[in-house]
Amino acid sequence: MNIAIVDDSDADAQSLIGYLDAFEAEREAGLVTERFRDANSFLKSDTSRFSLVIMDIDMPGLSGMEAAHLLRSVNPAIQIMFMTTMPQYALESYEVEAVDYVLKPVAYAAFALKLSKALLRVKRARQDVIVVKTAEGVFSLSSREVTYVESQGHYLVYHALGRALRARDTMAAAEKRLEPLGFARCNSYYLVNLRSVSSIMGLDVTVGGDVLRMSRSRRKAFMEAFARFSGSPW
After folding, report:
1. Of 15, 129, 130, 213, which has the most beta carbons under 10 Å away?
2. What's the whole-model pTM score?
3. Cβ(36)–Cβ(6) under 8 Å?
4. CA count, 13 A, side-chain hemisphere, 35
């Protein structure tokens, strides 16, 4: 597992690397770390290589929080942990879905607990990956990126981040894979990511800006699935 450290302080970065080495030795976790001295150099790298980034906030040039917002726009799957002396940005860390917000200095025992939580989030995120094989190549997507799947004959079209990825597959097979990740059929042709539903008006389901028609035969099951997922009765 590759972990990026983004911190302009040599002393803090070396201390963190020591913690990670100790954790790796204790748990045999297979961690590989790479240190960046500023946020810009990290963002210019291939951030998809990393499962977790541990980032300071107060750095010259681009701050860690500014970098996190930019990172989320290009890499929604990476887990972010802040380690900083600045408590005032803790609330804002929720906006970038940070796994933790750690105030320096932190003892190793406390850090190990927080790192265990972050690595568990990484593991769950990996289980959340959807692999789509198209004629152009193989795409690895987070389920959060896919708004809905559309059946077109012997093919499925995955609508994700403004793209339409066409793969040869069956709706039944896709439903079996994706239902545990929060997807449900609203009719024979559409498998909907329930977290992407913005409104349900009559038989019209709005998903990612598209309006999909719900069949009467599937309405009850779809609404029950949406209620379970959202925690709200219908």
Report:
1. 130
2. 0.61
3. yes
4. 14
Q: Tell me which residue of 86, 27, 75, 73 sits closest to 49, measured CA to CA.
A: 75
Amino acid at 192: V
Residue 203 tokens read as 């038989």
Q: Are 166 and 135 in contact (CB under 8 A)?
A: yes
Q: Which two tokens stand for residue 97?
A: 């879905």
| pLDDT under 50: residue ranges of the chain | none
pLDDT of residue 233: 57
By DSSP bridging, strand 183-187 and strand 138-142 are: unpaired
Q: Which residues contact 56 (CB under 8 A, 6 or more apart)?
A: 6, 7, 8, 9, 12, 64, 82, 83, 84
CB atoms closer than 10 angstroms to residue 11: 8
Q: Which pLDDT value is given to residue 192?
A: 97
Residues 6+ apart with CB under 8 A from 96: 65, 68, 69, 71, 72, 80
